[in-house]
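Input protein
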Amino acid sequence: MTAFARVGSILSQIRTYSCQMGRTLRLNNGLEIPIVGLGTYKSPPGEVQQAVKDAISCGYRHLDCAWFYENEAEVGEGLHAKIADGTVKRDDVFITSKLWNNHHAKNQVVPMLKDTLAKLKLDYIDLYLVHWPMGFKESAPPLPQDASGYSDVDYLETWEGMEECVKLGLAKSVGLSNFNSEQVDRVLKHCKIKPVINQVEVNPNINQKKLIKFCKDRDIVITGFCPLGRSNYAGKPGFPTPTIHDPKVVDMGKKYNKTPAQIVLNYLVSLGISVVPKSVTKSRIEENFDIFDFELDGDDRAYLDSCNKNQRCSPQTAYSDHIYFPFKLEF
């Protein structure tokens, strides 16, 4: 290789490294999670496989899955297609999945993760989360109609099963989802392996700043789901209108030559969290990833701060009488 070629190669490596800098967050076990991941909730079989391939092709290295989403096999097919064509190696991609509420008993946790691994055709996942602190009976539907389907299994028992997943090498990291501050603290007081993540709803209508600080102080990263809200709920009583439809956010998009979605996602990652926007549309998948080349000014960040109403698009009020319902507290 000539000296000129060597210099060119070094500059190329520097550009690649610079492009990746700041695009992951370090977890308390030393591993890193990509800041932007592909959400797969309600992504239909037949579409989610292509969405995964499109996402990996444009640079995503985090796929957010769950047993409850009923599409993990298709996610796995998309992933393996991109491994097979040489775009990525398994170790390049951070895979998250979640334990559903019907399987909170300690002896069910490992078998449920093995079921997920079989669907994904993987030997391990990078992160396994307790999807909700609320347990349901194993014999109940995934979404019980009333309290007769509730289980009183303590999520501390569930956590012991999660720790076993790490000990067996089936999950590199374990964490929580939809846990409030008191529930997080309770796990921390009893755990042997510390949770690395608490995945919760975060968008400008519920920016979770208090919970983000609470978790950061305990070296736990927040991942935000529903970062763009849910446009299909717009206008429904009790549900907030997604901020991407706010005229001022639309104007911000024009100001920065970005879409409203890119404005919102840029704002959210500036809070120090990771996000998992969901889409099966290639152009939007690409759009949601292209958020790192601009910075909102103080006035624009202040406006987005002011949008906080502590309103959820996933309030789960049907289960508010459950002993471990998480949303009785402010955060």
User: Anything to note?
Assistant: Residues 179 and 326 are 6 Å apart (CA to CA). Residues 1-21 have pLDDT under 50 and may be disordered.
